Amino acid sequence: MTIDRRNFLKLAGTTAGVAAATSSGVAHARPNKKMPEEALGLLFDGTLCIGCRACMPACKESNNMPPELTPLKVNGEEVNALWDAPLDISGSTLNVIKAYRNGTAEHKDQAVDGFAFTKQSCFHCADPSCVSACPVSAMTKDPVNGIVSYSLEACIGCRYCVAACPFGVPRFTYDTPKPQISKCQLCKHRFADGKYSACAEVCPTGATLFGKVKDLKAEIARRKSLAPGTTTTFPRGRIGDNDTYVGQVGKYVERVYGENEIGGTQVLHLSGVPFDLLDKPPLPDQAPAATSETIQHGVYYGLLAPATFLGILVAAARRNMRAADEPKKPEGGTP
Ligand code: SF4
Ligand code: SF4
Ligand code: SF4
After folding, report:
1. What span, in angstroms and rounded, lies between the C-alpha atoms of 242 and 254?
2. Closest Cα to atom 7 of ligand 1
3. I need a surface site. Which of 47, 100, 271, 313 has the fewest CB within 10 A?
């Protein structure tokens, strides 16, 4: 085939058609992935939290995490105190209870002149951005319990997961022989011994509660159906066990944080103050992974058409060159 004007236009038309067909996939993001039916998670009810922070050392102990020197100001000078009271999650701290304060901070779970507690740890998203962004599957989501896990062996230290997580959860450690990512894995290493998340196990009030997400959601619905201030029995530790705590139902804000955010998460939060005061920003229902994967795949498909076109051009050019190199048959009749 020689590449004359007619053939060129034909090829251009074909590849433009391929490009149009493939790029149409870019227009619509794929649906959010759903969490498994038996997904496990945590419910954090800020109105039950008393700020004792017992869950923090329990988390460290259970995960063999070293203590951190918390910087303090003494006589105006910043010193490293020998006191493990981290203010945020880090390479050595997977779970932190943070306090909100306003004005006189007299009233619990009140936005003005009040205070409130919130928990920060991995949300175990239904459609996790960290899993989607990891190029070597070092972050994975269990298809049965939905726990998002990290593999040090597989990790290449690119930190794409750090950039991708909308909650700022994965932390990169620089002070270990092999740099690694740290994040809560729901204490799955304790399951084989019949145990569950250490933070929930030690929590005296059931403010952090472990269980199947469907059971946690039913418990949320029960709490929200009761009038604020009603005395009730709350499950404590692991939902379904017979451990309980008697307390009063909080005056909850309407939203359950994690129910819909970025496609839903397996760690759910109830609160008496608006979540944006608690460093829990409003996020869209659509998982970022759903959009970014669609764009990536669209780019790959989009590249297919020009690559095909280039391949056809190269093949045609080679053929033309071969034809030009072949010895020409003598014209006219044989002598
Ligand atoms: S979640 Fe439970 S253990 Fe943690 S600070 Fe609150 S009450 Fe204490
Ligand atoms: S909160 Fe962040 S680290 Fe945890 S599963 Fe979701 S995207 Fe991954
Ligand atoms: S589930 Fe385990 S690792 Fe996660 S915050 Fe609780 S104690 Fe820490």
Report:
1. 29
2. 49
3. 313
